[in-house]
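Re: that chain you flagged

S.,

Sorry for the slow reply, it's been a week of failed gels. I finally had a moment to sit down with the sequence you sent. For the record, here it is as I used it:
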Amino acid sequence: MPAFALGKKSASSQQYDKNGERMPTTFIDTSSCHLIDIITPEKRGYFSVKLGIGATKNIKKPVKGELEKAGIKTPLRFLREFRLEDYKENVKAIEEGGKKGIQIGEVKIFSGDVINPTLLFKSGELITVSGISKGKGFQGGVKRHGFKGRSHTHGASRDERAPGSIGMTTTPGRVFKGKRMAGRMGNDRVTIKNIEIVEVKENGILIKGLVAGAKGGLLEIRS
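Prediction finished late last night. Pasting the structure tokens below so you have them in one place:
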């Protein structure tokens, strides 16, 4: 069954599994995840849902109008779409009482509703989690790529963390594309697949392992 939600990275901890082995865990807070809109193929040519999470102060006027249309009074910081074209057989768009919604199996969710993870996710299932990794700024080759560095002796004065040779002379006379060098590190979109759900609560999901991003960062959860 297709499942989706937006969450914020909360506490990372550890606990013991059934076999008595210690495992790292991360709790993803989904308490303020709202369904904003259902996008149908007739409207834009594809089928998806739009979710929002995270209270904030200032939002743009088009976003404010979109939230008011869904009946959401709280300004939301993050808005994301989840494509559902691969699940057309299990998901369908519905409308009841003038409100748009979707039906997944027997579960009905309407625009403006808070998404309850217990309706879509189950413990033991495998999910995919995407987030933005922590930005490290401009870093050298040793920290960014794990280079060994040069010797600290034999004339290597103040040159221990230098990257070394980066290319040839006559042929081809240039530096190859993709050469690992110093540069901006982190702040990338990182997707981790096949993460096991340990426990599902009404306000979030406890997963096995660690995910990218800082505490309070946005996470996209898919089945």
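What I noticed first: The chain has two domains: 4-135+188-222, 137-165+178-185.

Talk soon,
D.
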